[in-house]
Design a protein that fits this description.
With 327 residues, the protein is mainly α. Helix content is 50%, strand content 8%. It folds into two domains: 91 residues, Tyrosine recombinase, N-terminal domain (DNA polymerase, domain 1), CATH 1.10.150.130; 183 residues, hpI Integrase, Chain A (Orthogonal Bundle). The chain has 14 helices and five strands.
Length: 327
């Protein structure tokens, strides 16, 4: 409760401002600011305010440490935010910084350094990933997690945050309420998880995991501790289910592990594979882009394109009918 003082209200405003960005974004910004301040400290300088030439030199030095252009873009953005928050002139828009970043990106492209997207867990791949998963406690959890992630086109952070209170049973499936999403920070979003007629049904997988784990409230996807080996003559102890939700990084680790167990390259898959799989499967089935945009909860169509995985470039290109039929 606020005490009706200006100081308390300013402190509350600062707290709300910190909550405006997702935790992953705040973590990346903190890492970038630490690197920036450390760079300046080693040179006996003050990180605020900075000159454009210094920012360019910092980015060039970080590239020399093999940081990717994408990471450097995040660091540049963090420096910009740091200066704005401190009320200092922003040096990151200086032409020296822009040209340095352009040069770094061009050289990286020449060296073959390109952003590597995680493979899409399409319906076909998902079915192969699920096949070797046993029906033990951990297997039921992972099966429900994979199917829910693809059915709802969910990010790893959204999966990790699901609670029983967010789920509503209906005749057609489950209504999942996401209190916070990356695309809509200010209001909750409802995601349908429909019943399926195959082994890819997310609703039945959800129910099987909840029933076996006896989860009636709180986080749905939780950490599982495997029991120690039993002493000779004693029955094997049961695994222990935690009370706290798994982390987004655990979601990514589960996807990698299940992909590797199915014979895929584990490093090719991750948390984003589930959402990419949902949208790519929809695209392959001819769904309208507007429906895919709504499924992915994207504000713009250009963002949607980042999640789609295209197969054979010669399969149905837009110019095919106009050119090949005329030749």
């Amino acid at each position: 409760m606020l005490d009706d003082s200006l100081a308390a209200e300013r402190e509350a405003a600062e707290a709300y401002a910190r909550m405006a960005k997702a935790e992953n974004t705040r973590r990346a910004c903190r890492a970038a600011v630490r690197a920036w301040c450390s760079w300046y400290d080693r040179r006996g300088l003050s990180p605020l305010p900075a000159a454009g030439a210094d920012v360019a030199a910092f980015l060039a030095g970080e590239r020399g440490r093999n940081l990717t252009p994408e990471t450097l873009k995040l660091r540049r953005a963090a420096i910009r935010y740091l200066h704005r928050a401190a009320g200092c002139p922003v040096p990151t828009d200086d032409v020296t910084v822009s040209e340095t970043m352009a040069g770094i990106s061009r050289q990286a492209a020449r060296d073959g350094v390109v952003p590597r997207k995680k493979a899409a867990a399409t319906a076909t791949i998902l079915r192969q990933m699920l096949a070797p998963i046993p029906d033990d406690l951990r297997g039921l959890r992972d099966r429900a997690l994979l199917l829910t992630g693809v059915a709802g086109a969910l990010r790893r952070s959204e999966l990790a945050a699901i609670r029983v209170e967010h789920l509503e049973k209906t005749e057609r499936g489950l209504r999942l309420t996401l209190p916070l999403t990356e695309g809509s920070q200010a209001e909750a979003v409802t995601v349908p998880l429909p019943y399926g007629h195959t082994e890819l049904c997310p609703v039945r997988a959800f129910a099987a995991w909840q029933d076996r784990a006896n989860i009636t409230a709180g986080p749905v996807f939780r950490r599982i501790w495997l029991a120690k080996k039993a002493a000779p003559g004693e029955p094997p102890p049961l695994p222990r289910i935690g009370s706290q939700p798994i982390t987004p990084w655990a979601v990514a680790a589960i996807v990698k592990a299940r992909a590797a167990a199915a014979g895929f390259g584990g490093r090719d898959f991750g948390g984003y594979s589930l959402k990419r799989g949902a949208l790519t499967t929809g695209m392959d089935r001819g769904e309208h882009p507007a429906k895919l945009k709504r499924l992915g909860r994207h504000k713009r169509f250009d963002v949607l394109g980042e999640y789609l995985e295209f197969g054979d470039l010669f399969e149905g290109p837009p110019q095919r009918g106009a050119l090949t039929h005329a030749l």
